[in-house]
Design a protein that fits this description.
Number of strands of chain B: 17
Order of helices and strands of chain A: HEHHEEEEEE
Distance between the termini of chain A: 68 Å
Strand content of chain A: 25-35%
Number of helices of chain B: 7
Shape of chain A: rod-shaped
Structural class of chain B: alpha+beta
Structural class of chain A: alpha+beta
Number of strands of chain A: 7
Oligomer: heterodimer
Radius of gyration of chain A: 29 Å
Strand content of chain B: 15-25%
Distance between the termini of chain B: 107 Å
Chain lengths: 176, 376
């Protein structure tokens, strides 16, 4: 065989080996990238669920909302209706400088079920949004996690002259 | 001869080519491993800090409970805690793993702890700070290798403290010569009477081998007045020129007092207490609205027999036992004004105590004397 031709075949062989090697590396990188993508998504979901629980926990124990009994320990899982009515304005007023750090992007409401199911207390609402060039505001969150927690609702001011207990649920929606 | 020499060169060239290619591939994988190691360490640090944040959030709201957290997996790492007041006069605290980048910052939760912890067991204790209503849960953080020595005292807080912190690494001692640091990471000495630790005084023989920043003391220099000291060579040195006032009206399980004991120094203590005062400002807004609702309720329902004095207690003025004229509205207003001054200048925060006591008294009067609705 012509030595030039032999050398050419060897060169082609080397190129083929290198090509296959880089193809394998590329496959590896693609596989790793896909795996990481899924892992990051799962981690984000996990973090969002954890944030939802944490926000619910913080809300349930907020001195701004809980029922008190003088200097004794606060009543468990009980929200004061007068405070619920007042808190919305305070949360909104100090959203940027305080409460956003506590709740981040979330929507917190309390739905009364008994005795007045028509009552909904809107406590906090800060949705992740984006503003389009034409001024339209669109939601900009990719995931939402909701948690519900049953609470008792204490209403001290009613014409009957004594505290009245109802119940409802606290709904916490967090956005990512 | 000519063909033989050619093939010899070719074989040598092939080997060199192979070696270079092998080395490049090896370097590529070594690079990936090194990069992954760095990423894994950073990820671990960030996960640890996140988990700690969740633990702190849970512990923070679990009123009056003590949690012993196993941190043996972090025994090689040093956790750090810091709190600083920024240029706008707001507190910003931070905790994380030392020299590992990732950290968590917070303007809300007050965390009172030593500056550094390196331990296999961490202790978290949540105490509600009432002023006079519940403002926030003070989270006290320490470790089982942080030793607290309390010097014997006739002060009733001495017994209370020993009972309250059962399970912690604490020892009562008659004087400084009884201190044995053992293998603890750091030492905090508590002098309730202010008799044993003074500026420039000799520390104690047993404390000499320890690093200066690992030996600190808290001295009560008067009723609700404290001064932090740190070992400097063989002597005690004050960490701040003027004593700090503990802003509290609690008679026992005083969250502000315990917070002072567990704080690293005056700066972190005041910084975290400022968070409580910031929260108090927003709570006062809500309680003001509640007071107005209560007042309106009694105006709208004058027929409620038991409540005939309630508008008086709410609107006032009426006289307290000490002769001061007050009411719910007046007491809330006084507290709000004092708080405004405190948030501008922390030196004025001691002025909060009297209005808070007044509000506490009015709230009691509403419930006990007037049989009315109480504010809190």
């Amino acid at each position: 065989m012509n030595p030039n031709k032999k050398a050419q075949i060897r060169l082609n062989e080397t190129i083929a080996v290198l090509f296959i090697f880089f193809v394998l590396i590329l496959f590896g990188i693609i596989f790793y990238y896909q795996y990481q993508k899924i892992a990051i998504k799962e981690k984000q979901e996990e973090l969002l669920a954890s944030r939802a629980m944490e926000t619910t926990l913080k809300t349930l124990f907020m001195p701004e909302l809980v029922c008190t009994k003088g200097e004794a320990q606060a009543e468990d899982n009980c929200l004061d209706v007068i405070k619920l009515n007042a808190a919305d304005e305070t949360f909104q007023k100090h959203l940027g400088d305080y409460y956003f750090e506590l709740f981040s992007f979330a929507n917190i409401t309390v739905q009364e079920l008994y005795p007045h199911p028509e009552n909904i207390y809107y406590l906090y609402n800060k949705e992740k949004t984006t503003v389009l060039e034409n001024g339209m505001i669109l939601p900009a969150w990719s995931q939402k996690e909701s948690t519900y927690f049953v609470v008792s609702l204490k209403n001290e001011i009613n014409p009957a002259g004594q505290s009245q207990y109802g119940y409802g649920y606290l709904k916490v929606e967090v956005y990512s | 001869m000519r063909t033989g020499k050619k093939s010899q060169v070719e074989i040598t060239f092939n080997w060199i080519y192979l070696l270079i290619a092998g080395a490049v591939i090896l370097l590529f994988f070594v690079g990936i491993v090194v990069k992954q190691k760095v990423v894994a360490e950073e990820q671990l640090a960030s996960e640890v800090v996140e988990v700690m944040d969740t633990i702190f959030a849970g512990a923070g709201v679990s009123e009056k409970t003590k949690n012993f957290i196993d941190t043996s997996g972090l025994a090689d790492y040093t956790l750090y805690f810091n709190c600083e007041i920024d240029s706008q006069g707001k507190s910003l605290s931070e905790f994380g793993i030392k020299e590992k980048g990732s950290s968590i910052q917070s303007r809300i939760e007050p965390i009172f702890s030593p500056q550094e912890l390196k331990a296999t067991k961490m202790v978290l204790w949540s105490l509600p700070y009432n002023f006079p209503f519940k403002v926030v849960d003070n989270l006290l953080v320490t470790s089982l290798n942080t030793k607290y020595f309390i010097l014997n005292s006739q002060d009733k807080f001495f017994e209370e403290f020993l009972n309250a912190i059962q399970g912690f690494n604490v020892k009562d001692i008659p004087d400084l010569s009884f201190i044995n640091p053992e293998n603890n990471f750091q030492i905090r000495i508590i002098d309730l009477d202010g008799l044993f630790i003074k500026e420039n005084q000799f520390v104690s023989d047993s404390l000499l081998p320890l690093e200066d920043d690992k030996v600190t003391a808290l001295v009560f220099t008067g009723p609700n007045q404290i001064t932090y000291y740190q070992k400097q060579g063989a002597q005690w040195k004050k960490m701040h020129p003027h004593p700090i006032t503990i802003i509290s009206i609690a008679k026992e399980r005083d969250a502000a007092k315990y917070a002072a004991i567990f704080s690293a120094n005056d700066q972190t203590y005041q910084c975290n207490m400022l968070k409580a005062f910031q929260r108090l400002q927003y709570l006062l807004e809500i309680y003001e609205k509640k007071a107005k609702e209560m007042n309106q309720y009694y105006l709208d329902n004058p027929g409620l027999g038991f409540s005939k004095d309630c508008p008086l207690y709410i609107q006032g003025p009426y006289s307290l036992e000490d002769g001061k004229e007050t009411s719910l509205f007046i007491a809330l207003d006084n507290l709000k004004n004092s708080l405004g001054a405190c948030l501008i200048k922390p030196e004025f925060c001691s002025g909060l105590i009297s209005p808070a006591q007044q509000l506490q008294q009015v709230n009691r009067d509403l419930g006990e004397k007037g049989d009315c609705l109480t504010l809190y």
